[in-house]
Specification:
Strand content: 25-35%
Helix content: 25-40%
Radius of gyration: 28 Å
Number of domains: 2
CATH topology of the largest domain: SH3 type barrels
Number of helices: 3
Order of helices and strands: HEEEEEEHH
Number of strands: 6
CATH architecture of the largest domain: Roll
Distance between the termini: 80 Å
Largest sheet: 6 strands, antiparallel
CATH class of the largest domain: Mainly Beta
Structural class: alpha+beta
């Protein structure tokens, strides 16, 4: 029973659709950064050198880039709410899942051979079911807002009628 409960919670934490990033891909990861009260999006672009637990809610990619001559590696949880989106800019042919040998190479020896791929098809993560659900929820909230507005208008009409009645009585008393 408890394992089923844990599994249900884990599935609830997963995003509905994520980009299929593979080892050797050059990706741009849009990450939310919070600084004090402000929030911004920071883009980290580099080569995916590792993909861990691709089908799990703890799916992770490790991205490596060279910044000012120094190699920088960052791990991103694919289903994290801080990862806004991931877009694949280049796909390369590799024969391993973990490209640790790229750490020891620089310059031309660190290049990976690119392959042609459908960039728009891979980066499009639209989910028709989720979009339909979102449209249905928007429609429900719009209908509820209209109902609240109608109730408010009815209440205002009743108050205006009472006010007119009170003013009429006041006019009769003063005459």
């Amino acid at each position: 029973m408890s394992f089923e409960l844990i599994k249900k919670v884990n599935e609830a934490q997963k995003k509905t659709a994520v980009v299929d990033a593979q080892s050797g891909d050059t990706v741009r990861v849009h990450q939310k950064i919070k600084e004090g009260a402000k929030e911004r999006i920071q883009i980290f672009e580099g080569v995916v050198i590792r993909v861990d637990r691709a089908n799990s809610h703890t799916a992770r990619i490790t991205v490596r880039k060279i910044a000012s001559g120094v190699g920088v590696e960052k791990s991103f949880l694919l289903h994290s709410p801080l990862v806004e989106k991931i877009e694949v800019t280049r796909r390369s042919k590799v024969r391993r899942n973990y490209l640790s040998y790229l750490r020891n190479r620089s310059g031309k020896s660190a290049r990976l051979r690119g392959v042609n791929f459908d960039r728009e098809g891979i980066n499009d993560i639209s989910d028709p079911e989720a979009e339909a659900e979102e449209a249905r929820l928007k429609e429900e909230t719009r209908i509820a807002a209209e109902a609240r507005a109608a109730e408010k208008d009815a209440e205002e009409a009743v108050l205006e009628a009472k006010q007119a009645e009170v003013e009429a009585r006041h006019e009769e008393e003063t005459v």
